[in-house]
Amino acid sequence: MKDDLIAYAHAAGFAKVGICRPDAVPHLPDRLARFVGEGMQGQMGWMAERMAWRGDPTALWPAAKSIVMLAESYTPDHDPLAVLNQPAAAAISVYAQGRDYHDIVKKRLKKVGRWLIAQAPGSEIKVFVDTAPVMEKPLAQAAGLGWQGKHTNLLSRDLGNWFFLGAIFTTLDLAPDAAEVEHCGSCRACLDICPTDAFPAPYQLDPRRCISYLTIEHKGPVDPALRGLMGNRIYGCDDCLAVCPWNKFAASAKDQRLAAREDLLAPPLAALVTLDDAAFRARFSGSPIKRIGRDRFVRNVLYAIGNSGQPALTEAARALMADPDPGVADAARWAVDRLTTGAR
């Protein structure tokens, strides 16, 4: 059944499949407790919630005997760092340039899960994609899909690091795969490129300094000391992913819905900063960007405008200095001050 499962998952569109036991990573609870105890989660309060489930898959669903971990590639066909040299344009993380991966991957997981149940009537499954209290990356390493690199993201020798993860918990007792070991060697490319120095040490990330956290999870004004380091990145950051040497083996994305929308490759900041709530929702319908809301999104755009060095964008920022959202108004004032005084 395991061989047939892997073949079916590949045929369904997944790039890689591995299996581990629910108790395959016994150090997870202590590791998570330390992380939260040090306040590393910042405003991500959900990381401290349901810690017993998040740190221990056997507590999340005691009936599960196996976890099937699956990878879906979304490798870009363009250089994701090129937009950083266009100060009047916005840099959006590759994963958010296409359709929302949550929906795409979850539907594919359910398809594989239904097939699994059909092969073993009476068995049960639960599928998870990112939003449940499941630590996908350590489990994926335990299942042999790859290893957590120095940037803490999952790497694979045959996929690079551009891929999503999904999990199928099942009551079936499937033979586990051997865990993967790290293959980063002495490489420091991901650590050295980080704009905000968010890695206190290899294999450790301080999310509170990470641009992905700041632009997506952080509510309200961002620390002024970090704003200038964000450049034109308005949703996520791909720097550490893009420079990984293992990407020379990256697999192409199979689902074209994950491909970048033309209007999200390098959209003009001037067109994004004027979006009201209705226009924001319409433009990002079906996109993961929609979940942060107009206010946080425009706040990010204003930081990018302040970093742009483009005086022509001053009036667009000035128009938002009295915005009802305090974070937007604060960002607008900051942007205008940067553009008019040349402060850096």
Report on this model:
By secondary structure, the protein is an alpha+beta fold. Helix content is 36%, strand content 10%. It contains 15 helices and eight strands. The mean pLDDT is 94.
State which percent range the strand residues make up: 5-15%
Q: What strand line-up does the widest sheet have?
A: 1-2-7-4
What is the gyration radius calculated from CA atoms? 21 Å
Structural class: alpha+beta
Distance between the termini: 60 Å
Largest sheet: 4 strands, antiparallel
pLDDT averaged residue by residue:
94
The number of distinct β-strands equals 8
Count, helices: 15
Oligomer: single chain
The helix-strand sequence is HEHHHEEHEHEEEHHHEHHHHHH
Task: Write a short abstract of this structure.
The longest helix has 19 residues. The protein is built from 15 helices and eight strands.
Give the topology.
Layout: H1 2-12, E1 16-20, H2 28-37, H3 51-55, H4 57-60, E2 66-73, E3 91-92, H5 101-119, E4 125-128, H6 136-142, E5 147-148, E6 154-155, E7 163-170, H7 189-193, H8 211-216, H9 224-227, E8 233-235, H10 239-242, H11 269-272, H12 277-283, H13 293-308, H14 314-318, H15 326-341
Parallel strand pairs: 3-8
Antiparallel strand pairs: 1-2, 2-7, 4-7, 5-6
Helix pairs in contact: 1-5, 13-15
Main attributes of the structure:
344 residues; elongated; 15 helices; single chain; two-stranded parallel ribbon; alpha+beta; 36% helix; 8 strands; 4-stranded antiparallel beta sheet
